[in-house]
Amino acid sequence: MDYGTLQGILTIIVMLTFVGIFAWAYSSRRQKSFDEAANLVFSDEEVSKVSKDSGENK
Predict the structure, then answer these.
(1) In this structure, are residues 30 and 24 in contact, taking their beta carbons and an 8 Å threshold?
(2) For the chain, what are the domain ranges?
(3) Is 8 helix (H, G, I), strand (E, B) or coil?
(4) Which domain of life is it from (predicted)?
(5) What pLDDT digit, counting tens, does each position of 19-28 carry?
(6) Quick check: pTM over 0.90?
């Protein structure tokens, strides 16, 4: 096996990995969990405000 063949095999492996991650990220089954993860930032702000308010009252 020469260097060119090894490069070709590695290129195919990387391409298949990319296509797999792309398909996983855009699959409709994952949309609900990604939407929940996207909204986690906003739920943290509410918790932070409550923590800050309770700290100021002490």
Answers:
(1) yes
(2) 1-51
(3) helix
(4) Bacteria
(5) 999 999 888 8
(6) no
